[in-house]
Amino acid sequence: MKMLKKNDLILVGIILLLCIGFFAYRKMTEAPGSRVEVMMNGKLYDTLTLQEDTVYTVKGDNGSYNTFKITDGVVDMIDASCPDKLCVNQAGIHHNHETIVCLPNKVILEVVGAEEGEVDIIAN
Amino acid sequence: MEKKKINRITTYGLLVALAFILSYIENLIPIPVPIPGIKLGMANLVVITALYSLGIKEALSLSILRIILVSFTYGSPSTMLFSLAGGLLSWGIMALFKNGKLFSFVGVSILGGIFHNVGQILTAVFVVENINIVYYLPFLLISGVFTGALIGILGAMILKRLKHLYQ
Asked: What is the CATH number of domain B2-166?
């Protein structure tokens, strides 16, 4: 049994190129957002501005919770009731369309409103 | 005939136990990447080895049995859903390319790793009802390539040593 075929390398190459392309595209289009949308079970739960520093807790129906903070326009999950704590371990977000996902609690934080963010910066 | 049957039963029991233990060990190892779904997939070592040594159907029952056992022991109904989606898609793709001449064993394992993650993220899109989380896909694809390759190389070594048992 041959260990590697040419097609294996082509497959890996295509996947890596796709990913590099995606990362490059994100890098070029990224802009600081102005708001964070809190989604739960696919519905909008609340929207907060990134301009004000705050600590906020999302409470689920069955006693679940996710607590995040906003400091200097960066959203970061600081506590959650989920077992894996992946959302807490994830780094803070502040660019448009960046998300922090908590799958067990079905909670998503998404930074939005890049254009308005820029306007605000100009206005300031 | 009787001996052959006993042989099969013990082999299955052994492999299910092995896959279960590998999942347990994997649960003990913290993953340094805080992205949901990134895993080494050590249990896939058993599934892909079974796929090549025992057969396609045998690998499927092993995979499903392991997922049910592991989910009931360490997970929750939601982790079972993600594991099943990833496990079934990965198995299907690997079974599809197994007999083809297109990819080597390692290549098939890489495909398995990639599609395991694709299956999980598609499930996640439906669970949280937000398409934007496909942004995680590139990270998961890259991780699938690396873990798939690693599992493939290990699996090839195991198959080489097990050859005399099933041929």
From this structure: 1.10.1760.20
